[in-house]
Amino acid sequence: MSASLTELEYASEIKYSPKRVRLAVSLFYFGQGVCFASWASRIPDLKASMNLSDAELGSILLALPLGQLLTMPISGRLTAIFGSRRMLTIGGPLYALALSFLAFATAGWHLGIFLFLFGIAGNICNIALNTQGVAAERYYGKPIMTSFHGAWSIGGFSGALIGLLMVNLGLTPLIHFVIIAVIVWLHIFINYRFLVPGEKSTEAKKTSLFTKPQGVLVQLGIIGFCSMATEGAMFDWSGVYFKEIVKAPTQLVILGYASFMVMMAS
User: Fold this and answer.
1) Is it the case that residue 115 has pLDDT exceeding 90?
2) What was the pLDDT predicted at 225?
3) DSSP structural state of residue 53
4) For position 131, which CATH number holds?
């Protein structure tokens, strides 16, 4: 996209070392992974607190990918116009804030609305973060994109372990999510200045909002869809399975999800 090209053009003006830029981008990936895993680790608790059936929970969980899907074209356009660093300084805090909102849900429809907002904020972060990753990779001079995605997985694993700790300490999802949000906000405040800068792109206004995918892009999309469906099943249902089917002790319910994140990170 034109935003990434603009950012690459200005990479030579960055006054920070490539290693510091790489660390900052990695921490943004890590923080996003922690936020998502924090939500996933408390799904069983929120389900129980609202007395939701499996069918009700399944329907409500669709709100998150729906928010992501509907926002995708708009997020891409905004990132192209304003640059990924600007969008991350907006989307990152919103994502952490939306995480906190999830704990305020007292009914299924509340949770659905908050998940929709969580999906919107997450999509803003996803597109901006991957655009930033491309710019940082070019500035670094070596292929390091996989290390960024690895940082997300490590963040997911860490978030699962933090969730396990919070459950064992008897902390409510609200306290848990607020603690995570504050830490993420602090990290963004410290590290946003080390991201690759970008300028507004006028070229983005000339392109179509929707573009028909062709050839190998369609095939990659199908592969990505299948992978995310499998991944999403583990994110959304592993905790519920361990709690209601395996009958694991409350303190160990998250271990199934944590084990999955270990494999993701490795």
Assistant:
1) yes
2) 81
3) -
4) 1.20.1250.20
